[in-house]
Amino acid sequence: MKKIFKWIGIVLTAFVFLGTFVFLYQKSQPKEDVYEINTVALKDLEKSTIVNGKIEPRDEVNIKPQISGIIAELYKEAGQMVKKDEVIAKVKVIPDMGNLSSAENRVKLAEISFRQAKTDFERMQKLFKENVVSAEEFEKSEVTYKNAQAEVANAKDALNIVREGISISNAQMSTTLIRSTNDGLIHDVPVKVGNSVILSNSFNDGTTIATVADMNKLIFRGNIDETEVGRIVEGMPVEITVGAVQGLKLKAQLEYISPKGVQTNGANQFEIKAAIEVPEGTSLRSGYGANATIVLDRAKKVVSVPEASLEFVGDSTFVYVMTDSVPKQKFERRQVKTGLSDGMNIEVKSGLKIGDKVRGILKVDEK
After folding, report:
1. Is the pLDDT of residue 276 over 90?
2. Is 236 exposed, middle or buried (0-12, 13-18, 19+ CB in 10 A)?
3. Whole-structure pTM value
């Protein structure tokens, strides 16, 4: 019995030794390289660039007061729609003391002149009825009287404008009422009730009461690199994707290319603008981040291969065309002339025909 176990042990040891020898022998043998095979075929190729930017309203207006004063009331807030000439806020006038004093003096002088003109007119009217003075003299006194009367009205109107900001003769067009100058969405109301505001003049831009924008007319604004700006022209179609709205793609048309570049992070960039076609029912916000895809070049039904199949040596380009696959892969090195590339596939203008098999990337042995 002991002899049987002894021989079994010897046989098992021999098998282990033999198996180890075979395994090491196989591992020591050079492995055959196996490549992926790509078939030459006809494809439509497009060379495009992606420009980062944002969406903005074409017309965004800053509403400013026509007088200086204090915000008395606010009738609108950010996010609300507003129509042209609709009142946004009301300003209480803080009159300039110098202007107020001058306006009050004008009223006093106008009233003095009016009283004198009235007295003269009444006297001339009496004398005219008695045929003591001529009609011409009477008419002159009448004109002087009416002018004095009009000056009193104008002086009082000017005083009321200085004091209250409101014209007596045209109260509906009061400058104390801040009205929107266009239809649109109110983006911002940077003032509060009680804030002081000033009108625009040669020394400052004035206080912005509200910012109103027409959100039905939007543009894309971005910057393109100088290496690609020479390949685009105004009028080219643009596809806009908005990061904040999943799956939304908007059509646009390139309408502006800046003639001057700006240095940004060491690169020379040129500003571009594209007019966006906003579909009905689509709601977008100003400032949304967006990407614009611009097709720089395209080729239809051209002979092409994956770009990974190419070998570049200096100014020359080569591919490896399969000549045999059994018992192992064999390839022939062939020079080709290339054309348009979309980053994945590349046009081959000469050196290959449809149906040729070319070497791709080396397969990884996962064993």
Report:
1. yes
2. middle
3. 0.63
